[in-house]
Design goal:
heterodimer; A: 133 residues; B: 223 residues; mainly alpha; 12 helices; 74% helix
């Protein structure tokens, strides 16, 4: 794990992954009308006193949306920040509701895949749950 | 020259781009989605399905649609937004002035609403727009998502109604306003298929065709 933490980020690989699903993901990202109606469908949003950072759309835009906006030109710090959004702020229960029908969980899942491809993921073994987030 | 173009060919260009754009988006939707895999029912479920009568099936579907939904979570917003979206189509489509122009251009026209009703509906649309603007400005959860682009989209949507309203009342310079009204309408038509305003068609594609927990009917497609 420590080896992975020090290896540089393979931006080419991130760009390849982003391009692979570009048609679908860009479509979903650009179709969000920012209405915030997805908020209540997230149990973490309601559990955290309606903190906007737990809104499904906010999580998707701040993770995958930013990856597309930066066209994959990101560093490890950036992916570590995304890790918090896609693992700590979302459990991927796939119950988010979107009035337009945008597939929000697939965006979070894809952001997780990109992080994982660069060795950025929570370490489950050994350390207490709080430390990996 | 500019006025002639905006009041003449650009109208047909805008309508053409609008229709072609919607068609393009529809075709692309089927290209990026795939047919969903068939569902398999357990023998018990199959038996139950075979035994259920048609009215039980309808009851099940009604319950599916009316169980705790977003209407229960945000009743006020859903009522406002429903009125807004219905009027957004209803007002321009059944406006007397539009039909007089359509009649003189093509010799065909639709049924029109009385002018007083169209006028009242336009005021409702403008008030709804103010409501959405207020949400974006004052509600934290909407504000964190809002970008300058959202305000631009709201402006593009509202512009034809505001200019039409002002032109109807003949406030300010009528000729300038009617020019702006036509231009705003054309801009709106052109941008609908290529921006998030395209939810005019995506809403139906995503909620009716994609099979998911929240789809209105059992969809046939999957992402």
């Amino acid at each position: 794990m420590s080896e992975l933490k020090t290896t540089p980020i393979d931006q080419k690989e991130i760009r390849r992954m982003l391009d692979q699903k570009k048609k679908k993901m860009k479509r979903l990202l650009s179709h969000c009308v920012h209405c915030s109606l997805c908020a209540e469908s997230c149990f973490l949003f309601t559990a955290h006193h309606q903190d906007p950072q737990y809104m499904p759309s906010y999580k998707a835009i701040q993770s995958l949306g930013k990856l597309y906006r930066k066209r994959g030109t990101v560093d490890r710090d950036f992916l570590e920040r995304i890790k918090k959004i896609v693992w700590r702020n979302c459990v991927l229960c796939r119950r988010c509701y979107c009035p337009i029908g945008i597939d929000l969980p697939s965006m979070i899942a894809f952001a997780r895949s990109i992080c994982r491809s660069q060795g950025v993921y929570p370490e489950m073994d050994g350390s207490p749950a709080e430390s990996w987030l | 020259m500019m006025i002639d173009f905006v009041q003449g060919p650009l109208i047909w260009i805008a309508v053409g781009l609008f229709l072609l754009g919607l068609l393009f988006q529809g075709i692309q939707f089927f290209a990026v989605t795939r047919k969903r895999e068939p569902r398999f029912l357990t023998p018990e479920a199959q038996k139950e399905k075979a035994a259920s009568r048609w009215f039980e099936e309808i009851g099940r579907r009604v319950r599916r649609l009316t169980r705790r939904t977003v209407l229960g979570t945000h009743p006020f917003l859903i009522v406002i937004t429903s009125i807004f979206h219905i009027l957004l189509f209803g007002v321009p489509l059944f406006l007397l002035g539009h039909h007089i122009l359509l009649d003189s251009a093509l010799g065909v026209s639709l049924w029109s609403l009385p002018e007083s009703i169209s006028h009242a509906m336009t005021i409702v649309i403008l008030l709804c727009t103010l409501f959405f603007l207020g949400r974006r400005l004052f509600l934290a959860r909407v504000r964190v998502l809002t970008t300058a682009y959202d305000y631009l989209m709201l402006l593009i949507t509202m512009a034809p109604f505001l200019t039409g309203f002002l032109a109807y009342h003949q406030w300010f310079d009528y000729r300038t306003l009617i020019f702006l009204h036509i231009l705003a309408g054309e801009v709106l038509l052109i941008v609908i298929p290529f921006t998030r305003l395209g939810h005019m068609i995506f809403f139906f594609l995503y909620r009716f065709f994609i099979d998911s927990e929240y789809s209105f009917v059992r969809g046939t497609r999957a992402w």
